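Chain and conformation:
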Amino acid sequence: MKIQPATKAQKDKKASKKASGKATPGKWDEMNRKQRREMMRQMQSEDLSLEVVHPHAAGIDIGNESHYVAVPPSRDPKPVRCFGCTTAELKRMAEWLKQCEIRTVAMQSTGVYWIAVYDILEEAGLEVYLVNARHTKNLPGRKSDIEECQWLLKLHTFGLLNNSFQPTDEIRIARTLWRQRGNLVADASSAIQRMQKVLIEMNLQLSNVLSDISGLSGMSMIGAILEGERDPWVLAALVQPEVKATPQDIVKSLEGNWRKELLFVLRQEVELYRT
């Protein structure tokens, strides 16, 4: 297939855009390095050509022990304050923001620490922008939490931050339960693997005659073993008829070394799996 060469107009447009490096209207994470440096220069010099999109904005730097909040200097004599992570402190933060006539807040999605802040601020009637931390990093000179929240305030004031998608409360409930189910399934699989490992250490080769030791046949024999049964023929009689292995092979696989400490571990793994 023959590739058509770019037209002269397309080349001129591309070259002009590359050479200028000016901060064009758009989001911070969509700018290149030259455009970001130019935008930083304009914000630091308070360039009047920049359009203020959110005049009633605030920025929050989320932490695991405390949160730093910045509001415009004209709203409070102390425009940067630190709040704790307790519910009472978060409610006090929301009250202070409302006293400062703040309507929209930008904060970074750091781990799970943002969830409580997001819920309380949203409940207080504030519009919360949840920002991907990767979209605001790589700024030279930002070292402290105070500078971080002030930087978020500036970016949000000029409408340079993308708001992350937040599902409805019904979807969040279903997502939480579904994730918990996935965690339990993964834990159950790990418990089965540890059960199989203990059986092998006792030289009980059930995995060679059963396709799944967590099935009805396997769990019946393991339960009988934990109850004290040691006769391989009695244990083999617990196998369901659809198992393809012969009774003789099953009996051979049940001749093992009944070590007390391994039986103790096996009992705990079975209890974990059943839980």
Remarks:
- Residues 170-274 form one domain.
